[in-house]
Amino acid sequence: MGVLWTSTDAATATQGQVTQAFAVTGISIDTRTIRPGDLFIALKDVRDGHDFVRQALDKGAAAALVSRIPEGCSTSDPLLIVPEVLPALEALGRAGRARSRARVLAVTGSVGKTSSKEMLRAVLSAQGTVHAAEASFNNHWGVPITLARMPEDADFAVIEIGMSNPGEIAPLARLAQPHAAMITTVAPAHLAAFENLEGIAREKGSIFEGLVAGGTAVIPTGLDVTPILREAAATAGAVVSFGPEAGSDYRLIDARIAGDATVVQAEHHGKPMLFKVMTPGKHFAANALGVLALAEAAGCDPAVAAMDMGSWQPPAGRGQRERIYLDIVDEAESFDLFDDAFNANPASMAAALEVLAGASPRDGVGRTAKGRRIAILGDMLELGEDEAALHAAISDLPSMASVDLVHMAGPRMAALREALPRAKRGEWYKSAEELAERARHLVDPGDVVLVKGSKGSKVSLVVEALKKLRQPGAAEAHRGKE
């Protein structure tokens, strides 16, 4: 890996003081995952990063960005000393953006940010070198880290921008200075910090404040708040729309789930398009069209990008599907698991349950004889004063007619339990930890199981418990038999 920052360049960018010359090949904020050659950033969060500088250097960090000489360190260590670490990190990100030749693309939205970012990574990789944010690096430190990590020779950069409170998106967008920016959708999320959906739309629309001159705004159609997004995009050099409405530049005609894929029928400026997204979910179809619009804005051929969409699959926790084999000999002794445990709000919950409703269980292989569609749901967080009603409303979704059983974890999910018909009520516990302990009793061979909830609900613990039910070596033994 080549040099990312020399001490001279980093000091110039941050206006900091260097104790010993260095050259770094990466950037890290976590000593648990730090790699030799990294620049360790001593951020203050739950813990003060300065307490871990000595450990970072001992593990091979090439230098550390600090606001003081930490305990256990001295001027003989390679340190870049600045007045405040976070503003210095932002300055480093700003410098990384300024020196880059990449076409920079930014993504925000209530649902689908990370999935769209990863779709972009997949389709752009066939047309150039891509730098994209890791995991969900989309907040006040994640965005500058992503920019500071950007190689000078990248052809494309994909920046994910998120928010929890008003006023967070615009500064990050101005830091990223994207050539094109996309809003995936606007849905009830973070309502504890916003009065209504219109407020969320205005915040999402502020991403366009960061566009470079002549930049492209990509907006969804078919939403009640689409006019607000269009108004926010008015100063962009170009506005490209995607969605179901007639007149959309990328118009979604139909999305059909076919096994483990979604077949997308669309129109691009009136010309027909047909392509596959290699994971089930109609919501992925809409995101894919927005991704194609961004790819075109970056100078790529959208037809080629559509063909390359098949190389993308959702990451763990975001709709990834796998078969869990319970027996090394009998492949029928298995169940299918949709791991969508990373995030949840009413819109994404409805989309995930629609995927579950369209899945096909297998009969005659388990204790219950009939394969079931089972939802294991954790609390949806940050929904404000209407959270009980929003949880209860899950029971009214059309897809729930096809769901056989719902297990639940979290105090907010009690509202859904009360709203469900008695026949669909599974087990409910106050915490995901308690539900995870019941993993063996929640599912049966032949079942299709969805696990969905906000990250803070810790429903991913249930995913881990379900995966531990697999028989060691069974997946390898059955590979190719499905």
TrEMBL record:
Domain (Mur ligase C-terminal) ranges: 327-454
Recorded GO MF terms: ATP binding; UDP-N-acetylmuramoyl-tripeptide-D-alanyl-D-alanine ligase activity; UDP-N-acetylmuramoylalanyl-D-glutamyl-2,6-diaminopimelate-D-alanyl-D-alanine ligase activity
Subcellular localization, as worded in the UniProt entry: Cytoplasm
Biological process terms in GO annotation: cell division; cell wall organization; peptidoglycan biosynthetic process; regulation of cell shape
Domain Mur ligase central: 107-295
One family name in Pfam for this protein: Mur_ligase_M
Pathway(s) of this molecule: Cell wall biogenesis; peptidoglycan biosynthesis
Catalytic activity: D-alanyl-D-alanine + UDP-N-acetyl-alpha-D-muramoyl-L-alanyl-gamma-D-glutamyl-meso-2,6-diaminopimelate + ATP = UDP-N-acetyl-alpha-D-muramoyl-L-alanyl-gamma-D-glutamyl-meso-2,6-diaminopimeloyl-D-alanyl-D-alanine + ADP + phosphate + H(+)
Domain Mur ligase N-terminal catalytic: 24-68
GO cellular component, one term: cytoplasm
Function: Involved in cell wall formation. Catalyzes the final step in the synthesis of UDP-N-acetylmuramoyl-pentapeptide, the precursor of murein.
NCBIfam families according to UniProt: murF
Alphabetical list of PANTHER family matching this protein: UDP-N-ACETYLMURAMOYL-TRIPEPTIDE--D-ALANYL-D-ALANINE LIGASE (PTHR43024:SF1)
Protein name (database record): UDP-N-acetylmuramoyl-tripeptide--D-alanyl-D-alanine ligase
Taxonomic source organism: Thioclava pacifica DSM 10166
